[in-house]
Amino acid sequence: MKHVLAASLALCLTAFAPTLARADITRGCEFVIFSSNPAFSPTHKTLATIKTQGSCQNRTKANQCRSRAYNAGKSCASDLWAARWTHTVPQSCTNLSGARTGARLQWNGIFPKLPNGNNSFKDRIEYEACCRADGLKSPGTVHVRWVGSGDKGCGPNRTGSKSFYGGGNFAADYGVNCTALRKAGLCGTPTRTNN
Fold first, then answer.
1. Can you tell me the distance from the alpha carbon of 176 to that of 70, in angstroms, rounded to the nearest whole number?
2. pTM of the model
3. What are the pLDDT digits (tens) for 138-195?
4. Which string of b and e fits 75-94 if b means at least 16 CB within 10 Å?
5. I need a labelling partner for 163 at 20 to 30 A (CA). Which of 35, 70, 137, 147 fits?
6. Which residues on neighbouring strands pair with residue 51, listed in sequence order?
């Protein structure tokens, strides 16, 4: 009886050992989307963050997990910029769940009175540029960028022994006519005219 029990236990451990060695793991990278202008104080305004996660087979593939997470964040950022005129959050920014590779956009602040709704990337860029105390006083430009960072796999550039990053410009010069936008009510009640 002891031999049968020991053999059964050994068989169970052998059967589950490959599964344990291949268990899926996840790793992530940190993403920030921001606008900048020398007139801003500080010079950068965070518009959103993106939580990313990449899944892979086991701990020996952790860099592959982070590379997948980085690519998911990059896709989300790219798709968000492409969808800025639709005022919606693309599916690639809402597909993070469980132990799968994906990304989830997290806006910085809630602005319920944005002209095209809280999920309008375009309105958020313009609000940050025009409606803050240090906002642009007249028509001007802002730079809109994204940066992803983390351990190896979170971008092509190295900044330390285990720190990596990557990023890009959405628009080097994004024109914002703050005078017209404020007049239209972006920052509050629209200015009335006597027409």
1. 30
2. 0.80
3. 888 899 999 999 999 999 999 888 899 899 888 778 899 999 999 988 887 554 444 3
4. bbbebbbebbeebebbebbe
5. 35
6. 30, 104
